[in-house]
Write a structure and sequence with these properties.
Elements lengths: L2 H10 L3 E2 L10 E3 L2 E2 L2 E2 L4 H6 L4 E4 L10 E3 L3 H15 L3 E6 L4 H12 L5 E3 L9 H6 L8 E5 L7 H9 L3 E4 L7 H4 L2 H8 L1 H8 L3 E5 L3 H6 L6 E5 L6 E8 L2 E6 L2 E8 L4 H13 L4 H10 L8 E5 L2 E6 L5 H13 L5 E6 L8 H14 L4 E5 L1 H4 L6 E3 L2 H10 L6 E5 L14
Parallel strand pairs: 1-2, 2-5, 5-6, 7-9, 7-10, 8-9, 10-11, 11-12, 12-13, 17-21, 18-19, 18-21, 19-20
Antiparallel strand pairs: 3-4, 13-14, 14-15, 16-17
Length: 424
């Protein structure tokens, strides 16, 4: 079957499923493989549950006309996404960075959807499987698609950019994330910059944080760009008015009061504003979108439980985002500040050094109680409370309940520190 024929079949059955637990009637099932599973073995089950066709890559499973045999299912999914993207008239915004990608994506989508029919990456489906699935969710009515791209090693963003073929792009920042794969902060900069490299090579449009010296240097002579700045008036000027705890900003004399905590969310808001301006979204609609957006899914969520005022930021963590969160929490006006932070993953050889630095920072800030959780924090030299595992923390809190106050919970996804809520 040619890619053109497969694409015609996809247009007849425009829902892609890769998990037999989520099969919808008349979908196309792609039998992807993983370290511990072979999707080919589930193809029959997918068809029995209502899938129209199953795309497989092992001859022994090719039992009827409902099976589409290819050389490699993942490659075929990616090639189909690229083919579909080339047929689409939607404008694609590519988005990457070390921190704030998902929040920025949601803010951009909130702003642009005020004027356009948009789609955006669901959750953080931002890898070599998620990006193709996002592209394949573009319909004939879609005008703008915001495609988030994640990476933990070099060449990954370049690969995803070749599939997405973005017309526009933005990098949130360059931080200490996935150092195990990138090797160093310089490796992070090189890897994330592959999005800008792709855009410049293809003479596409770039959005930038002009106050970021790395972006300013890299894009200094590039013409097709629009940036934001708090000071440089050759770019779109946005003023930071404070965050106690929510970010307040001002653009063109219009005050915007968001539901996002921390100064680190200010540039995320700015990116959404500057894209809204580029795409001619009225400023009052931009303001309405930013003020209505409330974070979800353990990303700087603010909640109350049993007398505790909680900032739940347990979706992910790296040294850059952890430092920003602690410094912001330190500046907040709140009573009885309690800090519970968990290990930061994928730091490679820098793990010991980076966890010690965060432990030292936490010890030097003004918190009433601090709890460090995980093998790496347990190994630090500190006077703070350390717990080798979540279960150890749980045992301690069962005997010594947390006092009522304001609680910041942050750690890498693998630490699953949202479980602390069950202990309150």
């Amino acid at each position: 079957m040619t890619m053109k024929q497969l694409h015609e079949l996809f247009l007849e059955h425009p829902v892609i499923c890769t998990d037999t637990r989520k099969i919808t009637k008349n979908c196309l099932f792609f039998a992807l493989k993983g370290p511990n599973f072979n999707g080919n073995a589930f193809a029959k089950d997918a068809l029995e549950k209502g899938a129209a066709y199953a795309v497989i890559d092992e001859e022994e499973y090719n039992a009827s006309g409902q099976y589409i045999l290819c050389q490699n299912v993942l490659d075929t999914l990616q090639e189909l996404a690229l083919y579909h993207r080339k047929q689409s008239k939607a404008r694609i915004i590519g988005l990457t960075g070390s921190n704030g990608k998902t929040t920025t994506k949601e803010l951009i989508n909130a702003v642009l959807s005020k004027t356009y029919r948009t789609i955006a990456t669901q959750g953080n489906l931002n890898n070599h499987i998620g990006v193709p699935l996002t592209l394949l969710s573009i319909t004939k009515d879609t005008e703008i698609a915001i495609v988030e791209m994640g990476a933990n090693h070099k060449k990954e963003i370049a690969f995803l950019s070749n599939i997405a073929q973005p017309d526009f792009g933005y990098i949130t920042n360059f931080g200490k994330a996935h150092l195990e794969g990138f090797g160093s902060v310089e490796g992070v900069i090189e890897g994330k910059s592959e999005l800008y490299d792709h855009l410049m090579t293809h003479d596409k449009y770039i959005f930038m944080n002009a106050d970021d010296p790395i972006q300013a240097e890299k894009l200094g002579s590039y013409v097709k760009k629009m940036g934001f700045s708090t000071e440089d008036h050759q770019y779109y000027n946005i003023q930071y008015m404070g965050a106690n705890p929510y970010v307040v900003l001002e653009a063109e004399g219009t005050r915007m009061e968001t539901q996002l905590i921390g100064k680190y969310n200010f540039p995320n808001c700015c990116a959404a504003i500057v894209m809204g301006k580029y795409f001619n979204v009225p400023l009052e609609d931009i303001k309405a979108a930013l003020e209505a957006y409330a974070p979800q899914n353990n990303r700087s969520q603010i909640m109350e439980k049993n007398g505790h005022h909680i900032i739940l930021d347990a979706y992910n963590a790296n040294p850059t985002s952890m430092r920003a969160a602690l410094e912001n929490f330190n500046l907040m006006e709140a009573s009885n500040k309690v800090l519970i932070i968990g290990d930061m993953f994928e730091l490679g050889q820098t793990a010991t050094e980076e966890h010690q630095a965060i432990a030292d920072l936490a010890a030097g800030l003004d918190f009433n109680s601090v709890y460090l959780v995980g093998e790496n924090f347990f190994g630090t030299t500190t006077t703070l409370n350390t717990y080798r595992s979540f279960d150890n923390l749980k045992q301690h809190l069962a005997k010594n309940p947390l006092p009522k106050g304001t609680l910041l919970i942050k750690g890498s996804r693998g630490m699953a520190l949202e479980r602390v809520l069950e202990l309150l």
